[in-house]
# Entry
Amino acid sequence: MQRVGGEHSVSMVAAEEFLRLLYHEQPSVGELSVRLAEVRAEIEATGTYRHTEAELEFGARVAWRNADRCIGRLYWRSLKIRDRRQVTDAAGIAGQCFDHLREVTRGGRIRSAVTIFAPDSGAGNGPRIWNEQLIRYAAYRGPGGSVLGDPRNLAFTDLARRLGWCPPAERGPFDLLPLIIEAAEGELHWFTLPADAVLEVPLSHPDLPWFAELGLRWHAVPAISCMPLEIGGVRYPAAPFNGWYMGTEVGARNLADTARYDLLPQIARRMGLRDGALWRDRAMVELTVAVHHSFEAAGVTITDHHTEARRFLTHLGREEEAGRVCRADWSWIVPPLSGSQTPVFHRYYDPPDTTVRPAFLPAQ
Ligand code: ARG
# Structure
């Protein structure tokens, strides 16, 4: 097999750009010229190079710092790295994803982490996780074009069923989907999420007693698993990472978008709102209040958009002080509820630039 060059051969230019950044920001790691010579020789001999633990850690953290859609970047330095490059079989990868969820959930005191599996190399593609997030809810087509569950996951649910996954005997709107892992090219394996790896929060409202009867819930940990991580020219296709929720993600998007759970008409009806112009807005506020109230009552980390907007401006200030450009995508940074009440609304940002690396890349 040809190992030098080929489809996945790493560019020395990309490797050098990354190493220069690391040695510039962390001079204590050592002598840049020594490492550059080492990496150049390794790329010439094998077509790629192996990151040290320090490189992996810095690379993943800076990939978060470069995530121009993320409002939560103030804490980019606190990202915990789980180096699992040696785990290459599908069952081992699934097990590590479950351990990731257990380690970051901590009964509700959520922390941020990324688990990094093997990169693409001359020997073949690295593993890939087909799920958009490690925890997601199934969707089933019903009569008249109706959908039970999260319509966003219709195609994925179909895929899981084609592979042999069976929905629970009694289907509901919040059935956990299995993980689907491609370890060897073209071979997909599915794994049920163990109950102890998934914390969920049942939703209730502080002043609307009927709210709990709606039977709504959401999972505690958002863990994106479809974005390849690229560091210094090396691509890691499976690098699931998590943060914690901002209430609007669940209350003003996942449960409210018309293409998702579309719950605002039902909630407005229960609130006794007639057809006035702003019934959606009023229902959205109460749904988001319920999300915050329930997560807090369950002792699960959650943050609000006013707090995160302020923190994001603190982050921008710190980046500027460090002499860096912080790029941001206004349409993602501004929250979907009360945008103009948050300071991130009232300004523009250095625009996204798709060539900035290290980065979590768009879903493959
Ligand atoms: N918006 C996505 C969701 O609702 C999660 C994106 C990442 N969010 C985060 N707080 N780290 O599931």
